[in-house]
Amino acid sequence: MQYSPCKGDISKLEVELHTTVLEVGPRDGLQNEDRVLPPDDRIAFIARCVDAGVRRIEAVSFVNPKRVPQMAGAEEVMAGVPRRDGVSYSGLVLNRRGLDRALAAGVDEINVAVPASDTFCVRNQGCTTSEMLDAWDGIAATAADAGVPIGMTIATAFGCPFEGDTPPAQVAELARRAAGAGAFEIAVADTIGVGVPSEVCELSRRVREAAPGTPLRFHFHNTRNTGYANALAALDEGAATLDASTGGFGGCPFAPAATGNIATEDLLYALHRSGVETGVDMERVAETGTWLAGLLGTPAPALLGRAGPF
């Protein structure tokens, strides 16, 4: 009998032959690294991703550089990225000041992170989840007036390092608020890498019930070696987009023992071998992962760069 993490479902891999991979390496991949890359290196990283065929990239974060020095110079990065038809750059925003900076810098998409855990939200963003939701409503309205698409990333959707398991009902409520304010997509993020495929299926269905018709994106970390299985489960559930980080770098500065995102090149291998098209050249991404590891002075967690394609 063939195993499916989503009980009783026929795999959508048979009919969903294309998915979008959103490259988060320039933001989430770099924000927890000891070595701070200057804007020119980050621009070169982004350009390599574009040359490999990536069409959605989380390029920058408009946060306080004193708290996250790896993300300093966001405006310089946005001024230097290659502008090509079909390529969309997003910026992470946590407050109105960040939104103003993002709009002035010319991002194509706004991404707002709202943790489902109060404790994590206070430590990461200096406010409760309820306060962040109030801020979200104002940010979303302003972005809509400016004609810039805005999405919500529900952080700590599977679990919190301080509070434990996240109740699915909390995630569903955030999704409802996101859709109510006009989010063009909702991302469900396993910020600390605790989820398993059965939980991916449950959360996917809960979020779809709360926000029918809103495309879903999933963001996984491979902290406990479940990230790739979770990504395939999300695809099976009809996720429109999957986040990944070239080289497998990443983590959150405010989450203890946080480790990297799933690696873009390793995810591409799994997708392509499963018959799913992405339009991205995985070998060129793997080369960039090796190049990035050299800049950071640390080995890349990704495996494709070591083993090669098959």
Features:
310 residues, alpha/beta, TIM Barrel, 8-stranded parallel barrel, two-stranded antiparallel ribbon, 12 helices, 41% helix, globular
Explain this structure.
This protein has 310 residues and is α/β, with parallel strands linked by helices. The protein has a single domain (12-303), classed as TIM Barrel (Alpha-Beta Barrel), CATH 3.20.20.70. The protein is built from twelve helices and ten strands. The protein has helices spanning 25-29, 39-51, 74-80, 96-105, 118-125, 129-146, 168-180, 197-210, 227-236, 264-273, 282-296, 304-307; strands spanning 20-23, 56-61, 88-93, 109-115, 150-155, 159-160, 164-165, 186-190, 216-220, 241-244. The strands form two sheets. An eight-stranded parallel beta barrel has the order 1-2-3-4-5-8-9-10, surrounded by nine helices. A two-stranded antiparallel sheet has the order 6-7. Helix 8 (197-210) crosses helix 9 and helix 10 packs antiparallel against helix 11 (282-296). The longest helix is centred in the middle third of the chain and has 18 residues, at 129-146.
Q: Give the % helix.
A: 40-55%
**CATH fold naming:** TIM Barrel
For the terminal residues, how far apart are their CA atoms? 27 Å
Number of domains: 1
Q: How many beta-strand elements? A: 10
- Strands of the largest sheet, in order across it? 1-2-3-4-5-8-9-10
Morphology call = globular
CATH homologous superfamily placement: Aldolase class I
**Briefly, what CATH class?**
Alpha Beta
Largest sheet: 8 strands, parallel, barrel
What percent of residues are in strands? 15-25%
User: What CATH architecture label applies?
Assistant: Alpha-Beta Barrel
Gyration radius over CA: 18 Å
- The helix/strand class is alpha/beta
**Mean pLDDT across residues:** 93
Oligomer: single chain
InterPro entries: Aldolase_TIM, HMGL, PYR_CT
Family: Belongs to the HMG-CoA lyase family.
Domain Pyruvate carboxyltransferase: 19-286
GO molecular function: hydroxymethylglutaryl-CoA lyase activity; metal ion binding
